[in-house]
Amino acid sequence: MAAADYEGRAQESYVPQRDAPRFNLIGTFPSTHEADRAVMALHEAGFSNADLHVLGSLDDAPVPGDGLTPRDEKLVGRTFFWGMGGVIAGMVLGAVIGLIIMAIPAFQTAIGVKVTAVSFLLAAFFGAIVGSMLGFGAGVLAVDRRRVSNAPGNDSARGPLLIGVRAVDDEHRRAATGALRAAGAASVEWRGGGGHTSMA
């Protein structure tokens, strides 16, 4: 199970990935409601804030290689898709509009040029450039970031939450495991020495 490294959400505190090994017991909770109950239960069992922490969401765990979370990867992909779609549509529409404008006699008289095939090609070219820029902007703005991002207010779309606990001995381990399970943990994982993990 990966420890979650969260970035960009100022109103909540998450343990950086480098600090996650301090906790040898990891509970997974389906929602913030169960996670809040687990924190209260651990406090009642005698664990201090130094012995436990909300590590974040599974969806907050960065993907190895690019360092992005799964939702951020999805957001980047959708932004690229809609942006490129806007560029293509804008180029075609801009070129057509450029040709139409160049074909207007009043415009030809206003710019004072002799209309040739080159004139139409240039009109289509510049129209495509302007259209691609406008299309890219429209495509990016069309992405609904609330559906795919980790933005504040989108908690319902986030994955299970992880709570880390530091158990110093078997008695603490049993007490913490019981508190986590009683609060509704979907799973409780024990991290033993040497990097070995098992279900608690």
List the defining traits of the structure above.
single chain; 200 residues; alpha+beta; Alpha-Beta Plaits; 2 domains; five-stranded antiparallel beta sheet; 6 helices; rod-shaped; disordered N terminus
Account of the 3D structure:
With 200 residues, this protein is α+β, with helices and mostly antiparallel strands. It has 2 domains: 17-67 and 152-199, Alpha-Beta Plaits (2-Layer Sandwich); 71-148, no CATH class. Helix content is 48%, strand content 12%. It contains 6 helices and 5 strands; from the N terminus they run βαβααααβαββ. A 5-stranded antiparallel sheet has the order 2-3-1-4-5, covered by helices on one side. A hairpin with a 5-residue loop joins strand 4 (187-191) and strand 5 (197-199). The radius of gyration is 28 Å and the shape is rod-shaped. 30% of the residues are buried.
End-to-end Cα distance, whole Å, is 13 Å
Point out poorly predicted stretches.
1-18, 150-157
Number of helices in the DSSP assignment: 6
Number of domains: 2
Helical content, roughly? 40-55%
- CATH fold descriptor of the largest domain: Alpha-Beta Plaits
CATH-level-2 architecture of the largest domain:
2-Layer Sandwich
Largest sheet: 5 strands, antiparallel
Overall, the morphology is rod-shaped
Q: Please tally the β strands and state the result.
A: 5
Kindly estimate the percentage of residues that lie in beta strands according to DSSP: 5-15%
Strand neighbour order, sheet with most strands: 2-3-1-4-5
State the order of secondary-structure elements, H for helix, E for strand.
EHEHHHHEHEE
Mean pLDDT: 76
- Judged by helices, strands and strand pairing, the structural class is alpha+beta
Radius of gyration: 28 Å
Classified by CATH, the class of the largest domain is Alpha Beta
